Amino acid sequence: MPIDPHLLALFTVTTIVAMITPGPDMLFVLGCGMRGGPRAGLLATAGVASSEAVHVAVAAAGLAALFEAVPLAFTVVRIVGAAYLIYLGVQILRNRGNGDLETAATGGGMSGRRAYLSGLMTNLLNPKMVTFTIAFLPQFIDPALGQVWLQFTILGAILIALEFLVDGTVGVLAGRIGGWLRARHTARRRIDTATGGIFVGLGVKLAVEN
Length: 210
What we know:
Blueprint: H1 5-20, H2 24-36, H3 38-69, H4 71-94, H5 112-124, H6 127-136, H7 148-172, H8 174-183, H9 185-208
């Protein structure tokens, strides 16, 4: 198998938890679905997923070559990535339950084409998403197994598939899910607390590993 099964399982679980937590992408898709209907929600998700594929390809191409040329670079990126994950977890914990769904909504109706292009460009031009991809994926890559590019491809495919599944569902059920989130502030705080704790724990675990 070209990827460590334990890292693969950890990556899948962590990604699912991260995906089901309301974040910028989910809120954007939610807004598109609320304004343009299920089709707009799905196409907005497709736009976000397309940009994520670009991020994964860039991260894989650059970091794979770097890891092969300078093995120490992997350790450096891993430590920096771990620190970034801890930072994200702390931010989630500090701001749990404070998300504003209304800021995700877009004015007026939204065509499918506009939803797709908006999802593509919003995510593609977001430097935080590029940083997150570069910080997140290498944590689950094992250079000792070789075929680093293939490992990136597998993880990237899983990431995109889960993102499309979760955000696509949100887009289709935008109105109902939007109302649920607004009405259940306590539930959202608990989700944020769990997610923040997972990111902090994962970052600490990766930072102290040899």
